[in-house]
Specification:
3 copies of one chain form a homotrimer. The first copy, chain A, contains 11 helices and 9 strands. Chain A is globular. Chain A is α/β, with parallel strands linked by helices. In chain A, strands 2-1-3-4-5-6-7-8-9 form a 9-stranded mixed sheet, with helices on both faces. Chains in contact: A-B, A-C, B-C. Chains A and C meet through helix 2, strand 2, helix 3 and helix 10 of A and helix 5 and helix 10 of C. Chains A, B, C: Its EC number is 2.7.1.50.
Chain lengths: 280, 280, 280
């Protein structure tokens, strides 16, 4: 947190139109800077000056089908770390085709809800636990129909897969593990070896649009200055502490969002460091 | 209102980029859930799990010209109820081509301003009253240049047309009438038989962008759990009551929007039920 | 300011998806009305009823490459005044191709940060001062890496070029100069003859996304009722005064944005008129 606030790192986002403004404002409130791009030439040129990148597959347009796999491939070829939010994984042929293509050019961190994590693990053939009936685990639109516990196996499998793939293809130190963050009542963050559970936050975070999307953006902001696990843990903890502050000072979803952005700005690194983390 | 808050129904939106965030946040604040899509495969697959859908024709992109008529046709083929906001009806060849195509695959509810309702009725050949000079009734951009009274005939004609068409083609009970809601100083809602007038709200609703667009989204949220007339009336009444609350607690358009979202969350079904409705 | 608040002029925007909502809300809060369009037929038909137009080249989509040059050409052919925000000038082949095309169909006002102004002047072959190494002046994403002082020569050269071109091709009075506004710690506004420097504002304006983008929109709102220099000066001064008010009444970037929109609505023409302006 200190490093982000001191260096205001740039994290670039290719994200959905619903919450694109909140993603940028959350990144700024957390202490970073933001740039949003959609054209492959824009994304790749901006990636060269950005510390990390974020891809969120909500609100697809026709040209994304080719653009997103190309961007993922080029980010990985350039060894640029990136965060994926596989919004609504399992819904729509185009989204499925894009998410399947990411298997060969995987992200550094995945941030999603439980249903999306399970759907993505199934799609990539990694989820041996619940292989029985993948169709049970399709999200209800953008909302999760599964609880975080039930996504533990899928999250661990995905984190291991990301780490393996980056060790194979990356010039980075192969010992840096990738990470998966599953948002829910008690968030789960894992590097494929240890599973961390983070409680707190506010139920109002489900009554504004983009709490999850913007968390993905802030994970990218942290990823610009730290390893994947630290980025996923820090951003998730900041979100929980900020959610609690906003909960006590707001009177509905409108004032909650305002108070939440203020809290992202005002919560201290010390408050985040004092968070309780359950190691499973 | 009780049913929405108890069941948090999903209403899907294909809407403009200016107010897409407010549409989603208003649907959440009213008690529903939101999903936004643009690709036909996304929209149709999400429609299968959504209670209702919303199409708003602001900020068109090139691919909408084919996508929107296809989506309307498939929603109707699948008997999925949907709300249309014909933003800026009358402006631009592409918008006109899309709105004309909707005549053959019409929505369940139309929510618009007076100029848009008149322009759409003219476009569909339904507005016998003012057939003299259709070009007089083109909106000044996205703002209405006509008052609500002058749109009464067009609104009634549109509501009857929607009801007739759905009775012909739908497997639903043919006795459920469709509805048209015209926003203005005193809103008008009609099922083609009775004309209801709803007063109140706040003049500040014209000083934030998206009061009308997001009302269309909340009509869709209510349409997910009720008949078209009830959905149009309830959402319009909620908006007027919430506008009044926000008016008294805000100091300009910034704080008005925040207070308005809080009020959508906090206004009770009883407050809405006590609203005065003028039956014309 | 009085004229805008009395006549609520329409300014149309073709702008990026990150801050499109703030652009519209800022235009409404300043007293104008807003319409956002992307299709050439929409933009041109709306331009016929709008007082001024705004083009912002953030978040490009593939079809913009042809659409934006066509729109600029048609706006100029129709003698419609427009404001350009050359967001991230210098990044990406598509953006460069679009901005180069604008040289032949230039805007009436440019509103940008220092790096973008320098990059654009270099791109158009106008910046003799720093011709040595254009690559030094590429913006760090959407943030400026140059200070306002260093953009003075580029801003003056651009303003003169715009004025010359419009004098050649326009049917307007050739004596009306165009303007360039460079945002930074002390803003710079010039008509190519006089350089005005405007201090004040708030450092929090860099901690919300879209302060610059929405200023471009409000310049267009003012341009609908005044000459380019007056529009650029008035909008920039309003932004500084509103930023100061919001600074004292907010507790972080969330409440700053809310207070800022309120202040755009509440700051008086007299407060703006009392602003100190340094003439260089």
């Amino acid at each position: 947190m200190h490093r982000v606030r001191e260096t205001t790192p740039l994290a670039q986002s290719f994200t959905n139109f619903v919450t694109i403004n909140l993603v940028a404002n959350a990144q700024l409130a957390a202490g970073g800077t933001a740039a949003m791009s959609f054209l492959p030439d824009d994304v790749i040129e901006t990636a060269k000056i950005a510390g990390a990148n974020y891809i969120n597959v909500g609100t697809l347009l026709p040209f994304y089908k080719d653009a997103l796999p190309e961007i993922a491939q080029r980010l990985n070829y350039l060894d640029k770390p990136w965060v994926l939010d596989p919004v609504a994984a399992g819904i729509g042929r185009t989204r499925t085709s894009i998410l399947q293509a990411f298997k060969a050019a995987p992200p550094t961190v995945i941030r999603a809800n439980a249903s999306e994590v399970i759907a993505l693990a199934n799609m990539w053939g990694l989820n041996t636990e619940s292989a029985g009936d993948a169709s049970e685990h399709r999200p209800a639109g953008v909302e999760s129909v599964d609880d975080v516990d039930s996504a533990t196996g899928a999250a661990v499998a995905l984190a291991r897969y990301l780490t393996e793939q980056h060790a194979k293809h990356s010039s980075h130190d192969a010992s840096i593990p990738c990470a998966v963050a599953v948002s829910g009542i008690a968030d789960l963050v894992t590097d494929g070896e240890t599973v961390y559970r983070l409680s707190g936050g506010s139920s109002m975070m489900t009554k504004i649009t983009g709490a999850g999307c913007s968390l993905g953006g802030v994970v990218a902001t942290y990823l610009a200055v730290s390893d994947p696990l630290t980025a996923a843990l820090s951003a998730s903890l900041l979100y929980n502490r900020a959610g609690e502050v906003a909960d006590t000072t707001s009177h509905g979803p409108g004032s909650f969002q305002v108070a939440f952005l203020d809290a992202l700005w005002n919560v201290t690194a010390e408050q985040v460091a004092e968070s309780e983390i359950l190691v499973q």
